Amino acid sequence: MPEIRNDIRFILNGADVALTDVAPDATLLDWLRLNRSLRGTKEGCAEGDCGACTVLVGKLSAESLVYESVNACIRFMGSLDGTHVVTVEHLCGDGEKLHPVQQAMVDFHGSQCGFCTPGFIMSLYALWMRTPDPSNAAIEKALQGNLCRCTGYEAIMRAAHAISSYGEAAKDPLAAEREDITARLKALRDGARVEIGLGKARLIVPASVDDFAALLEKEPGATIIAGSTDVGLWVTKHMREISPAIFIGGLDGLRTILEKDGVITIGAGATYTEAFETLSKRIPALGPLVDRIGGEQVRNMGTIGGNIANGSPIGDTPPPLIALGAQLTLRKGEARRTIPLETFFIAYGEQDRQPGEFVEAVHVPVPTRGEKFAVYKVTKRRDEDITATLGAFYLTLAKDGTVADIRIAYGGMAATPKRATAVEKALIGKVWNEETVEAAMAEYASDFTPLTDMRATAEYRALAARNLLLRFYIETTGTKAPFQVSRNEAA
Amino acid sequence: MNKHATPNLKAEKIAGGVATDQRHDSAHKHVSGAAVYIDDMPEPAGTLHIGLGLSTVAHGALKSIDLSAVRSAPGVVDVLTHADVPGENDVSPSNMHDDPVLAEGKVEFYGQPIFAVVAETREEARRAARLAKIEYDELPAVIDIWNLDPVNDKQVTTPLILKRGDAAAAIAAAPRRIKNRMWLGGQDHFYLEGQVSLAIPGEDDEVIVYCSTQGPSETQHLVAHALGVPSHAVTVEVRRMGGGFGGKETQANQCAAIAAVAAKKLKRAVKIRLDRDEDMTATGKRHDFAIDYEVGFDDEGNILGVDFTYALRCGFSADLSGPVGDRALFHCDNAYFYPAVHAKSAPLYTNTVSNTAFRGFGGPQGMAGAERVIDEVAFAVGKDSLEIRKLNFYDPMEAIGERSVTPYHQKVEDCIIQRIVAELEESANYARRRREISAFNNNSRFIKRGLALTPVKFGISFTKTEANQAGALVHVYADGSVHMNHGGTEMGQGLHLKVAQVVAEEFQIDLDRVKITATTTAKVPNTSPTAASSGADLNGMAAQDAARQIRKRLTDFAADKYQVPHDQVVFLPNRVRIGNQEVAFNDLVKQAYINRIQLSAAGFYKTPKIHWDRSKGRGHAFYYYAYGAACSEVSVDTLTGEYVVERTDILHDAGRSLNRAIDLGQVEGGFIQGMGWLTTEELWWDNGGRLRTHAPSTYKIPLASDRPKIFNVKLTDWSSAYEPTIHRSKAVGEPPLPHGMSVLHALSDAVASVADHKICPRLDAPATPERVLMAIERLKREAVKPA
Predict the structure, then answer these.
(1) Is residue A20 over pLDDT 70?
(2) B413 touches chain A (CB under 8 A)
(3) Which of B77, B287, B438, B502 sits most deeply, having the most CB atoms within 10 A of its CB?
(4) Is B191 in contact with A49 (Cβ distance < 8 A)?
(5) Can you tell me the mean pLDDT for A437-446?
(6) Which of B376, B413, B734, B777 is the catalytic position?
(7) C-alpha of B694 from chain center
(8) What is the pLDDT of residue B2?
(9) Cα separation of A463 and A447, whole Å?
């Protein structure tokens, strides 16, 4: 058993912090505002959608220090052990010279009411440190998790392009202090487990994946928290009790990503940002999808493991992973089993996961040459929106142009992520042409009976979902004509 | 800005006068997190927090309320119900007595506040609020207005009728006629800072309420009313809001009243800050509209007569629904002359949250009806909609003839829409792009482009005549620095900055000598809400008046002391020329103080010329009009209805702008907000009357990546207010919002291409990808149907 300590340790702006009185459901935003009176960071929605609470969290990733924008409103204190939290107050002190990001926003009239502004500053700061001269597309992507209701964003875009004319990212204080902060964060990694009890509430940060496995086996009812982009709302919106809570987001052993024999294995604790760095490179059709999952802050927190494990019918990664033929490794104590991802989803709210068991990794086969794969997400608003319908297609053609195999999986169309088996059946063995596709489109009605809700009517879901098959067909013809609207190509 | 800089006594111009580009006065504080919003203020020791208990049915009698578990929950100090309201249990802004502070006997919408928990922490208050056991006798609930009768179903206030000529006869006699209906969804304000108030009890009956409100005087009045004390006991103060957009014109009052009642009862400071979900569930929004229209026209596309019924979803109480419906009617003409017109409003009662002001205040909905009519006529006669628009414009100001009278019998004397549209048509290359898009669509099977150019004419003034007044308070301290205060509120629009520029201009001192201070009912009384785009027009004039009074005293003093005629006292930048010598402004002020000259003044302004007789539907309702036009191009995916805005060009009239940098931001932001209203922002109630789009996860306002890919926004550099407004500038808060219509109509144009532009798509709003796809499907079906 590892050593146990009873405090959370991290760096807040310049100061070392050690806290012994942390509740499992305490959020970073409330702590900053109420305990530390750092009120530059605002609450706009308390659900990780508006970005007014954006702060940076610096973490050691493969020994190097990475700063990421995150939503403080749904970030739990328990997940901060061993990190560097940077708030807007750290950019310039009272009466001091403004930071380049801030000065650019002032000079280009990037604020009106100013309430969302600190969040924009922090998102732009994270982008600028990484990409000092970003493209329009890069800025828009970095700002997908920041809502502004006043400016119409144009002034903010102008400011974002101008930041580097106010200063050099390489000379930024966070860059200059990199070695010092890295050393201080390394010193915080003592290999201990954190256990804090506060009244009846308990918070645990395991020392390692093995430690986590052992803990969960003993406490199968514990709430597992990786990115907290879902559990955060259980607390802020539903006021649910989550104790005992086990925080696994900081476990390096769950964040590994490696490729072997054409299969990419992603640790369940890898964030969208981390996982898609590899996935988008190796499976380019996944690239456009990740840009439409949450905002940057959510992608920096949320994990693919969590997206799978919570079993939501509108999670965006299960359908493409099912179409790709992904496998899932579950672990309980020392015992592991690997199943097809598809079979993990049993019914609404029901997954093939035993008490004390957790999702450890997902294994994604990389399509070989000649196989065609695509995924399309349909939403009300293009970015940072929840799926109305999402279709993923994986096609293997025989030499004679007939469909040797096809896997089609959808989100938003049933109580779980679900294969379109009747449609697949109507395609397999047929010549892959528009006639075949048209005929198969009629089969959607036997695969899916979607619901009407605030995102879309059943009628629209059914229609758009089957049109996606036609879109996929058109894409496989290699046409040069546009077959979907695009944000990033000029008019 | 260096606060200690010595004023430049040789300057040719002051730094920061009117008609100069200035940064928002708080910009440096916005970016550093140092700007203080109400929830950021240090709380007085012992401050308590409120959590609301909301109704979970849309309509019902309150059978029993068991709050015992709430009272015994950790941290709870008290639980308030309507019985704890010492004055009248009402915050109706229209004196209709239909807006309870806390529900009494019945609830009329899902989410209506029934009780308020007061606890040591906000979290404890929110947790405890969930423990109530409330039984309802449910009653039938009316959620939607689509199937209601605009005349016979229950209304929350008196409708308005506008008529000029005999519309029925004109339509009947017209060569061609079309009758149809359109739907416009509502809109949540989504100010980033939600509703918040902090009430601090004082001596005797006093209380001070820090409230994120656009209307401090009204908040003061209604808090006093709820407390049963005179208005003089209540002070309401607001330095800035984190966005308002109309959502804090009346909707801040309920929270303010609850906090004040709790603070007075418990003799402790009390704060209320709504969670986003509660805010969106329990506070009012832009009205949804169902618009019935019938138009008679000729083969050229000249409109001969038109009849409108604007039915609006008001929710359970009147709030501002009467004037919102009125303003919709005032804008049923947009920029078009109707030879004969009949228009009526139907402010319908529903069991939904009471709808309220939202930037444009019904005007955009009125215009959207006009633009639909234009589209119908254009498709019927087979012409580009822009041609029909131009055909039906009001007469231009330089050639006013018979086509200049509005449906409310006001003469349009300042029409510049022709010139604006002509310039925009040219700069946006409308004709060339129309041809290119047509060619593109012929060669593109799935992606279709659409283009539209829509005009805006927006009437400026409150239609409630008494609201068109303003006050200001200006002090000049003995060191020559100036304290500026007025009745307007700052919600991001740069009002304080503009008014400070006006004051700096009057005194001819640098802008940094003028201190902007929080709006408070203790300094300027009986103010109007900062609404109707009127902030700079009214308060700028009032502040100018105050500054002029002081300047006159300084002039009199200088003339007397230096023994020169008055006209030889001239205010130059940071100095005053008195006869042949120049004296620093600061020195003159010092001398004036020593000579016991009053250096403080209250300023006042009331808008001249305007009058309005609602019962007759006649008057000079607006002091002037603001104009503009927008041209948008979209690409639509005909398989899913998804779209992107490829390009938008806007030319907007802000008169002689006080600050073009600020005004440009208003136009850009207003357009995007209008676009959001008409595209992705959808309010969706379930059958039980529960709003399901009550958070940004489900309610989708535009993101940076929803901006047009190419976005060219310009202010006219030649226009000037026809009336003597403050430095001949024009109001710019609301008029740009309806430019979003250009996107709706561009989408409609793209949809129309699937049926060769022969069928009017009648695309309703919000035009979500779903509505776009369904319109495409309808047109495809109708195109193959035999005629």
Answers:
(1) yes
(2) no
(3) B287
(4) no
(5) 98
(6) B734
(7) 21
(8) 45
(9) 13
Of B23, B192, B646, the CB nearest to A491: B646
Judge whether A91 and A99 are in contact, CB under 8 Å: yes
**DSSP reduced 3-state for B636:** strand
Residue B78, H or E segment: strand B76-80
Q: How far apart are CA B342 and CA B165, in angstroms?
A: 8
**pLDDT (tens digit per residue) in A121-159:** 999 999 999 999 999 999 999 999 999 999 999 999 999
Contact B705 A141 (CB under 8 A): yes
pLDDT confidence band for A95 (50 / 70 / 90)? low
Q: Enter the DSSP assignment of B39.
A: G
Strand-pair category, B575-578 with B581-584:
antiparallel
ipTM of the complex: 0.98
Report the predicted TM-score, pTM, of the whole model to 2 decimal places.
0.98
Full DSSP string of A140-158? HHHTTT---SSS-SHHHHH
| Chain A hits for B743, Cβ within 8 Å | none
Residue carrying structure tokens 């906000």: B122
Which chain B positions have a beta carbon within 8 Å of A486's beta carbon?
644
Per DSSP (E only), the strands in B482-568 are 482-486, 514-516, 519-520
- Give the sign of the dihedral formed by CA B517, CA B520, CA B522, CA B526: positive
Pick from A98, A140, A457: CB nearest B705? A140
Tokens of residue B210, six digits: 């820090």
Three-class DSSP category at B603 = strand
- Please indicate whether residue B633 is annotated as part of the active site: no
CA distance A325 to chain B (A): 26
Long-range contacts at B605-611 (CB < 8 A, ≥ 24 apart): B605/B469, B605/B470, B605/B471, B605/B538, B605/B539, B605/B541, B605/B542, B605/B544, B605/B545, B606/B468, B606/B469, B606/B470, B607/B461, B607/B468, B607/B469, B607/B537, B607/B538, B609/B723, B610/B461, B610/B465, B610/B468, B611/B465
**Chain A contact for B212, CB < 8 A?**
no
Q: To 5 degrees, how large is the angle CA A379–CA A272–CA A342?
A: 75
Judge whether residue A490 has pLDDT over 70: no
Subunit contact B24:A112, Cβ cutoff 8 A = yes
Q: What residue ranges define each of the domains in chain A, with the CATH number in brackets? A: 4-89+178-247 (3.10.20.30), 100-171 (1.10.150.120), 372-476 (3.30.390.50)
pLDDT for B421-431, tens place per residue?
999 999 999 99
Q: Is B693 on the interface with A (CB under 8 A)?
A: yes
Query: Which of B189, B447, B643 shows the shortest C-beta gap to A482?
Result: B447
Give buried/exposed letters for B401-426 (b at 16+ CB in 10 A, else e).
eebbbbbbbbebebbbbbbbbeebbe
B697 to chain A: closest CA residue? A49
Best of B31, B47, B712 to mutate (most A CBs within 10 Å, chain A): B31
Distance of alpha carbon A59 from alpha carbon A82, whole angstroms = 7
Q: Please state the length of chain B.
A: 787
Q: Which domains does chain B have, with CATH numbers?
A: 27-35+469-606 (3.30.365.10), 411-466+610-787 (3.30.365.10)
Least Cα distance to B197 among B45, B22, B50, B18 occurs for: B50
- The C-alpha atoms of residue A241 and residue B264 are separated, in whole angstroms, by 34
Cα–Cα distance measured from residue B649 to residue A305, given in angstroms and rounded to the nearest whole number: 45
* B768 in A contact zone (CB under 8 Å): yes
Could you tell me the CA-to-CA distances from B616 to B183, B407, B612, B622, B624 in Å, in that order? 28, 12, 9, 16, 21
Taking an 8 Å cut-off on Cβ atoms, the answer to whether B28 and A106 are in contact is: yes
Amino acid at A219: E
Q: Classify strands B196-201 and B611-613 as parallel, antiparallel or unpaired.
A: unpaired
B698 touching chain A per CB within 8 A: yes
With an 8 Å Cβ cutoff, are A111 and B24 in contact? yes
State the residue for tokens 């017109």. B341
The conformational region for residue A412 under phi > 0 = left, psi -120 to 50 = alpha, else beta, is left
